[in-house]
């Protein structure tokens, strides 16, 4: 057994752990990094990267069915699913070197490829090593939550960890769960020529603005996805080679493949948290606002901390704790400026409060400024007019923004800056957006906030009238 002493021990080499390790070592700390699975974690291997690569291939196939309106004729695209998955694998392989053991070794991090578990409040065992560290960071991520559906043990099922090894297109993909994973995979597969049925127990993308999700729902249905909402899956069973799914209200759906997209479970099983006196909550490891656990030497970041579960959040958490780990300075993780995007076509983006949340918080003080993509000239030229920007404003400051539309994920970045810096609407109107760009929708939404104040104000009209009389 080798004993190692270090300044910082990071458990998990995914989005959060890698950011802490890279930051800490480059600022002079001794760092040990443990990874029991693949370097790069969920995002690179089973999450963001493969899902966005698959969506890109699906969009390519879809575009070929939409050329006629542009005066271009093409033949029906032929999808080679194995070829599509080769594109997915190649995308992962291209990005992988950035997260690789070699790169981190090169930076000076001691990388140990083994699962870590606490054996005392300061010590972690990983394979043949026992590591004692001044500070320990748990960044072990999450895994697909598998709900206890009767009959699930009698049928084969896919999760985000196994989907990418399929080489033959599913004939009919049943997806349980209409959250971001379910919805992205539904659109990807219907565009690649599969039949797709999504069964959602509550409401599709239930955390998002219902008006915008209604538009997205209509788009998915138009493209051929069968959407079943308000009916949780009650039972599953094999019928010959196929899988039969029964909902709570006794509707029956039969498909060739089953994908579970029913949320996440924090990866804490292997850690023996009790040995270190680390408390958990219903969703993950319990932390304070500075991401410190009930063991003062230990921090938890990213998915395992059980809050917002996104790669950019894991990266943000890394930045928050590096300040404390390396300089001993207090630091807190905020959430109100964190954007999230579902990468359907059109994309659905959110930062800050939705209209419902903002109405609850601000009541009559809330104003909502809106602008439709149909009024954006670039969107008209590109035939991507579906969508809307909604800006929730209280006291002249945006408190939330919801965008459905082409490139919404990129468009919401401006509002993430606005919310992070508590900027006012008038500062957004100071921006000149180039014409003709989609970015103009942001400027026009801000304009929509001010136009009633300027164009419908008697005082403004009276002032202009007066000035005009005196102007030479
Ligand atoms: C299908 C899908 C699509 C997604 N798309 C997006 C997206 O587009 N944008 C976005 O922002 N987010 C997306 N996410 C979420 C994103 O993948 C996660 O939020 C992110 O990976 C979390 O990073 P992390 O560092 O907390 O955990 P991870 O990246 O999962 O890393 C944790 C690592 O810890 C390792 N580990 C676990 N236990 C131990 C142990 N005991 N010892 C050693 N190592 C251990 C694991 O093997 C893993 O490599 C998606 C998720 C899924 C499932
Ligand atoms: N674009 C992105 O950034 C992106 C993409 C995918 C995933 N993610 C991350 O991964 C997380 C997990 O995504 P997800 O979609 O798996 O989870 P989720 O929790 O967002 O959605 C799961 C859905 O499954 C439904 N459900 C659960 N059990 C069910 C049952 N038995 N029958 C029918 N419906 C059931 C729930 O009502 C819920 O709507 C997301 O919250 C997000 O943080 C992000």
From TrEMBL:
Family: Belongs to the class-I pyridine nucleotide-disulfide oxidoreductase family.
Domain of life of the organism encoding this protein: Bacteria
PROSITE patterns, sorted: PYRIDINE_REDOX_1 (PS00076)
Record: residues binding NAD(+): 177-184, 200, 263
Spans traversing the lipid bilayer: 399-420
Pfam family membership, one: Pyr_redox_2
GO MF annotation terms: flavin adenine dinucleotide binding; NAD(P)H dehydrogenase (quinone) activity; oxidoreductase activity, acting on a sulfur group of donors, NAD(P) as acceptor
Disulfide pattern: 43-48
Domain FAD/NAD(P)-binding: residue ranges: 7-317
SUPFAM superfamilies: FAD/NAD(P)-binding domain, FAD/NAD-linked reductases, dimerisation (C-terminal) domain
The protein's name in its UniProt record: Dihydrolipoamide dehydrogenase
The Pyridine nucleotide-disulphide oxidoreductase dimerisation domain, residue ranges: 338-445
Residues where FAD binds: 52, 116, 140-142, 303
Organism name: Pseudooceanicola lipolyticus
Highest classification ranks of the organism: Bacteria, Pseudomonadati, Pseudomonadota, Alphaproteobacteria, Rhodobacterales
Cofactor note: Binds 1 FAD per subunit.
Keywords (A to Z) from UniProt: Disulfide bond, FAD, Flavoprotein, Membrane, NAD, NADP, Nucleotide-binding, Oxidoreductase, Redox-active center, Transmembrane, Transmembrane helix
Cofactor(s), by name: FAD
